[in-house]
Design goal:
Rossmann fold, alpha/beta, Gamma-glutamyl-gamma-aminobutyrate hydrolase family protein, 6 helices, 13 strands, hydrolase
Length: about 240
């Protein structure tokens, strides 16, 4: 890649039963997400989450990702609970796809191993946490614990990457999730929490490459909030350095 070119940001697609104007099931990414990467100066590239029979070849995934300058793991449905060692599945778990899980988990492992710049959003954070040996609460549940279709304040740790990018010690986060981190994955540190204690961002200081994961959806408000757009800007800046 020449320095004048947009760095290529790989975004695993999400399987969808259908989409407007298509006659078949689709592989998609949210327009708000790809536009945030584009505004940042990146070239968003949707990649096929190929993992037949729920198995993913590590070497093949590494080779595919090595073509890119950065990776963005987006939101989506729930991870299968067996992926983090749970023996039972809560009734609230939805949109589980074994192929999607296998690919995303391997993509997270390989992006970290390759030290590719990596931004993980919502499900993406949960994928990274699981890939590093952590676990999830399958459902937050109960009145006052709702994190779907809400904007709420999140406190950011002083000196953290996310606080530096947002430019404050608090941000208004747009959330849509009913699961969150239980046991933290190896090497991760918590850098943001909601008022109810929910982990809202994690970083990996010793990972050797640029990495940030947030539980909220910065793409929801990035078009109007420079702090949220700053997360995508930082990913693309890091990708320029990797290219």
């Amino acid at each position: 890649m020449t320095r004048s070119a947009r760095p290529l940001i790989a975004i695993p697609a999400r399987f969808s039963a259908g989409a407007s104007a298509l006659r078949h099931a689709a592989e998609v990414n949210a327009r708000a997400l790809v536009e945030a990467v584009w505004r940042a100066g990146g070239e968003p590239v949707t990649i096929h989450p190929h993992a037949p029979a729920g198995r993913c070849d590590p070497r093949g995934t590494a080779a595919r990702l090595a073509r890119f300058d950065g990776v963005l793991l987006p939101g989506g449905g729930d991870l299968a609970p067996h992926r983090y060692g749970a023996g039972q599945t809560h009734e609230a778990v939805y949109d589980v796809d074994d192929e999607q899980d296998a690919f995303d988990l391997e993509a997270a492992r390989q992006a970290l191993a390759l030290k590719l710049p990596l931004l993980a959003i919502c499900r993406g954070l949960q994928v990274v946490n699981t890939a590093l040996g952590g676990t999830l609460h399958q459902d937050m549940g109960g009145p006052g614990r709702e994190h779907r279709h809400v904007r709420h304040p999140v406190c950011l740790s002083p000196g953290s990457t996310v606080a530096a990018l947002v430019g404050a010690d608090k941000t208004e986060a747009s959330c849509y999730h009913h699961q969150h981190v239980d046991r933290l994955g190896t090497g991760l540190v918590v850098t943001a929490r909601a008022a109810d204690g929910t982990i809202e961002a994690v970083e990996a200081p010793d990972a050797g490459g640029w990495f940030l994961a947030v539980q909220w959806h910065p793409e929801d408000t990035a078009g109007e909030d420079a702090g949220q757009q700053g997360l995508f800007d930082a990913l693309v800046r890091a990708a320029y350095g990797a290219g």
